[in-house]
């Protein structure tokens, strides 16, 4: 089939509102950060909370250790990505958030969107990534 065929999928850039709406259902996304040994990407359960995503992890895990900061009110730079793809139709979307991550205080945990972790075990370290940059793309049939 020719590359310019009318049945070829279109690539559409998504605006911030479209991106946040796609993320709105929550589920599983990937948090990207530097763990001290280089770039690392870890899947997490998340929920959208305003213009941010909230996720939980274990207190003893690498993600918690890497995202904590000794600066009160400080944040760690990170990225968060979610995508969906249908192999049969070859359609899908991808959304990327970039911003600062900080641990939630007990008061913030109470007010934040609730996240149900997928794996068992304690997941008492809560984090919030404030979406400073939001971008997304959708591949769809015309």
Description:
- With 142 residues, this protein is mainly beta.
- It has one domain (10-140): Electron Transport, Fmn-binding Protein, Chain A (Pnp Oxidase, Chain A).
- Helices cover 14% and strands 49% of the residues.
- It is built from three helices and seven strands, in the order E-H-E-E-E-H-E-E-H-E.
- The protein has helices at residues 16-23, 62-67, 106-111, and strands at 10-14, 27-34, 39-48, 52-57, 76-86, 91-103, 125-140.
- A hairpin with a 4-residue loop joins strand 2 (27-34) and strand 3 (39-48).
- The longest helix has 8 residues, at 16-23.
- The radius of gyration is 17 Å and the shape is elongated.
Question: Could you give the topology of this structure?
Answer:
Layout (H helix, E strand, L loop, with lengths): L9 E5 L1 H8 L3 E8 L4 E10 L3 E6 L4 H6 L8 E11 L4 E13 L2 H6 L13 E16 L2
Antiparallel strand pairs: 1-7, 2-3, 2-5, 3-4, 4-7, 5-6, 6-7
Number of domains: 1
CATH topology: Pnp Oxidase, Chain A
Q: Major sheet, described briefly?
A: 6 strands, antiparallel, barrel
Fraction of residues in β-strands: over 45%
In N-to-C order, the SSE pattern is: EHEEEHEEHE
CATH architecture: Roll
Judging from the principal axes of the Cα atoms, what is the shape?
Answer: elongated
- CATH homologous superfamily caption: Electron Transport, Fmn-binding Protein, Chain A
What is the CA-CA span between the terminal residues? Answer: 16 Å
Q: pLDDT below 50 for ≥5 consecutive residues: which ranges?
A: none
Instruction: Indicate the radius of gyration in whole angstroms.
Output: 17 Å
């Amino acid at each position: 089939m020719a590359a310019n065929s009318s049945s070829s999928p279109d690539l559409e850039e998504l605006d911030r509102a479209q991106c946040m709406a796609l993320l709105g259902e929550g589920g599983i996304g990937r948090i990207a950060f530097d763990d001290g040994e280089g770039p690392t990407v870890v899947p997490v359960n998340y929920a959208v909370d305003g213009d941010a995503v909230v996720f939980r992890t274990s207190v003893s895990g690498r993600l918690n250790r890497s995202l904590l900061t000794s600066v009160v009110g400080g944040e760690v730079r990170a990225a968060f990505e979610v995508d969906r793809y249908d192999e049969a139709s070859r359609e899908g979307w991808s959304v990327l958030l970039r911003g600062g991550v900080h641990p939630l205080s007990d008061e913030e945990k109470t007010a934040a969107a609730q996240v149900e972790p997928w794996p068992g075990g304690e997941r008492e370290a809560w984090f919030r990534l404030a979406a400073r940059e939001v971008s997304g793309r959708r591949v769809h049939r015309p």
